[in-house]
Amino acid sequence: MTRRSFLLPLLLGLLAASAPAAHAQGTFRVGYSADSTRQAPLTVTFTATFPAAHTVRWAFGDGAAAQGPQVTHTYYRPGTFTLTATLLNAQGREVSRAETPIEVRSGGPERAELTVLHAPGSVRIGPAGSVLYRPEPPRVFLDGREVGPGPAPLTPGPHAALAQATGSAGQRLERRLTLNAAPFQTSAAFDSEVLRLTNRARAQGWNCATLRAGGPALPPLAPHPALDLAAQGQSAGMALYGYFDHTSALDGSSPMRRVQTAGLNPASVAENIAAGQTTPAEVVDGWLRSPGHCRNVMGNFTLIGLSYVARPGTPYTHYWTQVFARP
């Protein structure tokens, strides 16, 4: 059997900026962080540092406002908005002000999307990947019944999934998928061994250029249940729908969309996949000797999710996924 593995280090970065303003009693500094794509709907976290006995009033430039040292705001529509942060003293009088433009780019036409994570006997379905320029998220249905973000029971056979939403102009948006559920095998022992071998390589300072240990040691990656769910959704998706790619042939989801559907929204994500290898040692050795995969294993991540799935009768039988993340 031909064995192969590919990588796609998907990194979702944080765009950070700050705007200082000086006043007689100290420095007033405003910073913000957001998805580096800047696409609407864009959620931005604003943070201010300032002297004691003061507070900050925020005007987001789209008619909304808030107060406090750290606030989060979502811009649902594209455009350039002027963020105004006003420093107030203990008597509520303005003593300083900082302004900065917030550019929000178009995410493209509004659409409803579905992201599917298979697990043994169940499935998680979420609207990650949808683009809506209004606050109300899509509703998700499985076989005609609305489902939430948690697992839904799934028996073998075909099932109908549907996302429904209303666009900002009142238009109806839908995305439909047919799920083909079937049994597959998992192995907690294999997942644990892949984790051990991965962290051993980090502890030994594996060098991705020289393909040998001896470099600076890296801290171990901590397993995370949401990343395990995302990894299992990818391994099971490849086994059930006959593809071998970081982009799902079922729903078009990316590694980040799968992580978000599993319940985590980290700053960056990367994914390693492999198919055909029969043991944890074989698959980890292959990843360490492949430059791109190795960079993920030895990357600046703190969390990991793992999944081995076997489904006899499919092109590769054995499917492996690692998902890396940094909060």
TrEMBL record:
The organism's place on the tree of life at top rank: Bacteria
Keyword Signal tagged: yes
Residues of the signal peptide: 1-24
Entry-linked InterPro entries: CAP_dom, CAP_sf, Ig-like_fold, PKD/Chitinase_dom, PKD_dom, PKD_dom_sf
SMART domains associated with the record: PKD
Pfam families named among the record's database cross-references: CAP, PKD
PKD domain span: 57-96
Assigned keywords, A-Z: Signal
Protein name, UniProt field: PKD domain-containing protein
Biological source species: Deinococcus caeni
